Amino acid sequence: MKKYTVSVLLWLLFEAIAVTLWLMLDNLFYLFNFSYIGTCLALGTAFYAARLRHARTVVQFAVGLYMLVYLGILRGENMQIEGFWYYLFLGVFEAAVIHYVVAKILGPLFFGRGWCGYACWTAMVLDLLPFKTPRAPRLRRLGVVRYLVFALSLLFVGALFVLRVPNLESIMFWSFLAGNLLYYAVGIGLAFALRDNRAFCKYVCPVTVFLKPASYFSLLRVKNDTAKCVGCGVCKSVCPMDVDMTNNARNRRFGTECILCFSCIETCPKKALYL
Ligand code: SF4
Ligand code: SF4
Ligand code: SF4
């Protein structure tokens, strides 16, 4: 794709979502919300493509803080996975349900794990830690933890409904705060223990259970011009997610882990990688 095509497509996609939800749900908030996120993503990817090095970090904070502080803390909307179950069980198509459908269930068909590279408020902090590229081999078996956390979140919210616990709104708010503090603590601890900023993403994060299947079919993905590639392996050495981008097959090693950070594309000495 041409240099700024991704940014334009992202902006158009989010504007389409913003206008559709605004008109469908008769709520101006959705126009503002998705326009803001789409504009941040489009500007960030455009600046990044223009080689402004910290553009991705700026987008991570612009979107991540908006969602964590404004939506989560000030508006009291639990955007974590338990918030998704909560609104789903209430039968309400808003807040976390819309967020999950757009960013984590259907959106990845277009932009893969772009959420993880540009918008996640957990990763915005983890990416500041010193281990940007993993210093040790991946512990594949540890990946089972994400399914346990996923099941626990479902059980937790399911139990609140089954036991008819009162004050669910308040419980969801406090679980959002507690859950985030726990995620940051575990994420930072794991990053230092395994010398890998993204260890939490690889082994613990329950959201990946939603993100990975659709990412497999993502329209946006890093491709390799095998006529140019000399197999030097530099690209793989800078990838924070251990992806084998020298293989163009969809089932390439850790292919559903790509967060579209573009580090490999920037680093390839032969300019063999592209979107
Ligand atoms: S894997 Fe989870 S914690 Fe990591 S960036 Fe994606 S959503 Fe955030
Ligand atoms: S850095 Fe470029 S040339 Fe080297 S293996 Fe990767 S894609 Fe091929
Ligand atoms: S380095 Fe390349 S393959 Fe790895 S996550 Fe970033 S864009 Fe994806």
Taking the sheet with the most strands, its summary is:
2 strands, antiparallel
Strand content: under 5%
Question: What's the shape?
Answer: globular
Mean pLDDT: 92
How many strand units?
2
Low-confidence spans: none
The first-to-last residue Cα distance is 6 Å
The ordered string of helix (H) and strand (E) elements is: HHHHHHHHHHHHEHHE
- Spatial order of the strands forming the largest sheet: 1-2
Estimated helix fraction: 55-70%
**Rg over C-alpha atoms, rounded to the nearest angstrom:** 19 Å
User: Could you say which small molecules are bound to this protein?
Assistant: iron/sulfur cluster
Give your account of this protein's structure.
- The protein is mostly helical and 275 residues long.
- Among the domains are: 80-216, no CATH class; 221-275, Alpha-Beta Plaits (2-Layer Sandwich), CATH 3.30.70.
- The protein is built from 14 helices and two strands, in the order H-H-H-H-H-H-H-H-H-H-H-H-E-H-H-E.
- The protein has helices at residues 5-25, 28-49, 55-74, 81-90, 95-106, 108-111, 114-118, 123-126, 144-162, 168-194, 199-203, 208-216, 234-238, 263-267, and strands at 223-224, 273-274.
- A two-stranded antiparallel ribbon has the order 1-2.
- Helix 1 runs antiparallel to helix 2, helix 2 runs antiparallel to helix 3 (55-74) and helix 4 crosses helix 5 (95-106).
- The chain is globular, with a radius of gyration of 19 Å.
- The mean pLDDT is 92.
Q: Topology, please?
A:
Layout: H1 5-25, H2 28-49, H3 55-74, H4 81-90, H5 95-106, H6 108-111, H7 114-118, H8 123-126, H9 144-162, H10 168-194, H11 199-203, H12 208-216, E1 223-224, H13 234-238, H14 263-267, E2 273-274
Antiparallel strand pairs: 1-2
Helix pairs in contact: 1-2, 2-3, 4-5, 4-9
Bound molecules: iron/sulfur cluster (3 copies).
The site of one iron/sulfur cluster has 9 residues, from helix 11.
InterPro entries: 4Fe4S_Fe-S-bd (IPR017896), 4Fe4S_Fe_S_CS (IPR017900), Electron_Trans/Redox (IPR051684)
Transmembrane segments: 28-50, 57-73, 85-103, 144-165, 171-194
Pfam families: Fer4_10, Fer4_5
